[in-house]
Amino acid sequence: MKGVIVQKYGGTSMGDIERIQNVARRVVEHKREGHPMVVVVSAMGKTTDHLVDMAIQLNPNPSAREMDMLLSTGEQVSISLLAMAIEGMGEKAISLTGAQCGIKTDAHHKKARIESIDTERIMEEFERDHIVIVAGFQGISDLGDITTLGRGGSDTTAVALAAAVSADKCEIYTDVDGVFTTDPRKVKEARQLPEISYDEMLELAKLGAGVLHPRSVELARKYSVQLVVRSSFNKNEGTRIVEVSKLEKVQVRGVTADQDIARISVSKVPDTPGVAFQLFSQLAKQNIHLDMIIQNLNHEEHNDISFTVPNDDLVEATSIATAFAEKVGGGEVIIKKDVSKVSIVGTGITGNAEVASLLFGTLSELGINIEMISTSEIKISCIIDAQSSDLAVTSLHNAFDLGLGL
Asked: Does 362 fall in a domain?
């Protein structure tokens, strides 16, 4: 028997009956080659959006627990339909919810994290020669409540299952051919990368590249899961995520833009030890993801603190920041929504002064003002006005010659 393959298909790949049949054919093809198969699927098309809309019409502020109960049903529709399609092609298949296949999570509704996976049920189904179809995005808490894993949760489910069953590889199927140097829908010169390192992919995912979710890449790197991003609409090889040592040379690998963020600034924060901790500890307790953080030394022993959060967390983060400002005697809390985080990513790029010079020089020539800057060993990010985002990405893509061959 050949090694296990885990495949994940997103909502676009499962968008209608014809596409579900296409997914079924792909899965059956691998099964008939001798691979035990685990297939993770998302809700069909816009199902999740439709469910959210109905919930908001009934209650503008529904509880997180009930939202998890509601949203988890979208994936259950997908797994049963795919199982039926596979059975119609003469193969055995069984659909399992996250709970049924042993995915245990913490109790943080809407943003749950996987704590363990009991693979006994999956292995039993392999013995019965079943293709195992798993609902992505969900698990079960110790209380027996259905939980969801948040944005990108199906990617996370797939990689976690691949690690748990020691799969030969985990294939993430989407509506693009792989990972590109930038968004090919916005920059026609964007080039597909045949391979990219875990660290580079993680940064691209964090910085707005929508192909993979950061948590899935973190898991893949931690457990050395062989990860491939492919299109569900053709037979192309896709992009392999590999160890950095397998890449031949260091260079800028991609340009991203994330407009799904907002900037929060708290002015005139007292310059005393432990004050910043009071703010960020409260944000952490609510599991609010923080990205760029800057503290500006002001005058009269006060500072301004600015940070960015996902738009989904803006209301809650603003409430926490406002309460913090009132508690410490700070100044105004300023919210800016029309911002974009434009970034370049590549292993070791911050050790090369020419890279930073070209980045800042390009934005300067375009007359684009930089509001915040953040760096790591493999990325440089700038917060700019959202209206300049597309121009900045296209110009940086050209400036670094990313449309040319390797």
From this structure: no
The residue among 146, 150, 173 whose CA lies nearest residue 37 is 173
What is the DSSP code (8-state) at residue 180? B
Chain CA centroid to CA 32, Å: 32
Q: What is the pTM of this model?
A: 0.79
Q: Could you tell me which residues come within 8 angstroms of residue 230 by beta carbon, excluding any fewer than 6 positions away?
A: 171, 172, 173, 174, 177, 178, 236, 237, 238, 239
Residue in this structure with the two tokens 């209206």, named with its chain if needed: 387
Q: DSSP characters for 184-201?
A: TTT-TT--B-SEEEHHHH
Q: What is the CATH number of the domain that holds 80?
A: 3.40.1160.10
Closest CA to 308 of 260, 275, 273, 353: 260
* pLDDT tens digits, one per residue of 90-145: 999 999 999 999 999 999 999 899 999 999 999 999 999 999 999 999 999 999 99
Contact at 8 Å (CB) between 227 and 195? no
Rounded Cα–Cα distance for residues 296 and 276 (Å) = 12
> What is d(CA 260, CA 205) in angstroms, rounded to the nearest whole number?
13
- Structural domains in the chain (count): 1
In a domain, 107, yes or no: yes
Separation of first and last alpha carbons in the chain = 38
Tell me the residue range of the domain where 53 lies. 5-175
How far apart CA 389 and CA 291 sit, in angstroms, is 18
Q: Has residue 296 been placed in a domain? A: no
Close Cβ partners of 293 (under 8 Å, ≥ 6 residues apart): 280, 305, 306, 307
Q: Which residues of 117-144 are buried (b: 16+ CB within 10 A; e: fewer)?
A: beeeebeebbeeebbbbbbbbbbbbeee
Q: Is residue 100 part of a domain?
A: yes
Q: What does the DSSP assignment read for 287-324? A: T-----EEEEE-STTEEEEEEEEEGGGHHHHHHHHHHH
What tens digit of pLDDT does each residue of 278-302 get? 999 999 988 888 888 888 776 668 8
Rounded CA-CA distance 365/147 in Å is 48
User: Which SS3 state, helix, strand or coil, does residue 47 take?
Assistant: helix
Q: How far apart are CA 118 and CA 18, in angstroms?
A: 33
Q: Which residues pair with 105 in a beta bridge?
A: 114
Q: What is the mean pLDDT of residues 351-372?
A: 90
